[in-house]
């Protein structure tokens, strides 16, 4: 893995796990010092993140973590509500006991994170559950789109969500697995739609205050 890729992965992970919250400024000089690389290298990584909507770069203002608007937040969840339930039929065709066991392991990871009060890990485990499930549907284009939507949902939840946005209040994923085990794709499809609608309803569409970020501490090896 190249150095640029390692930096990209670390910054992306920090964004998705909410260590860099929406709206946080990303000064090239401070990131350069934190990673021990040139500002040119940092700029390349930030431009890549901007293309993927995780970062926004404004003239004379520099880069900052994308803070989705209220409309964007709703559009991201609406897109997931439209797409993910439709993939369930393909998921069911690929379903077998080995897949069931694999996804139950992911559910265990979610529960452990939630019980530990680790919202960042819980959000990441939840996103992984959804996009790995989408990969089973057999449509790589839609699976990649769902993966991006899951990442963007992490930003939305960082900006507007609460613990109920990633807790069992939105439905335990094991309930979906039970339906797939029983060969009930229609009920599984309905469960997924309701699950995503509850997440959308849990959002509190209010902005949060900017936080100070210690980049040296955050990205130390």
UniProtKB/TrEMBL annotation:
<dbReference type="GO" id="GO:0003677">
    <property type="term" value="F:DNA binding"/>
</dbReference>
<dbReference type="Pfam" id="PF07729">
    <property type="entry name" value="FCD"/>
</dbReference>
<dbReference type="GO" id="GO:0003700">
    <property type="term" value="F:DNA-binding transcription factor activity"/>
</dbReference>
<dbReference type="InterPro" id="IPR036390">
    <property type="entry name" value="WH_DNA-bd_sf"/>
</dbReference>
<dbReference type="Pfam" id="PF00392">
    <property type="entry name" value="GntR"/>
</dbReference>
<dbReference type="InterPro" id="IPR036388">
    <property type="entry name" value="WH-like_DNA-bd_sf"/>
</dbReference>
<keyword id="KW-0805">Transcription regulation</keyword>
<dbReference type="InterPro" id="IPR011711">
    <property type="entry name" value="GntR_C"/>
</dbReference>
<protein>
    <submittedName>
        <fullName>DNA-binding transcriptional regulator, GntR family</fullName>
    </submittedName>
</protein>
<keyword id="KW-0238">DNA-binding</keyword>
<keyword id="KW-0804">Transcription</keyword>
<dbReference type="InterPro" id="IPR000524">
    <property type="entry name" value="Tscrpt_reg_HTH_GntR"/>
</dbReference>
<feature type="domain" description="HTH gntR-type">
    <location>
        <begin position="1"/>
        <end position="68"/>
    </location>
</feature>
<dbReference type="InterPro" id="IPR008920">
    <property type="entry name" value="TF_FadR/GntR_C"/>
</dbReference>
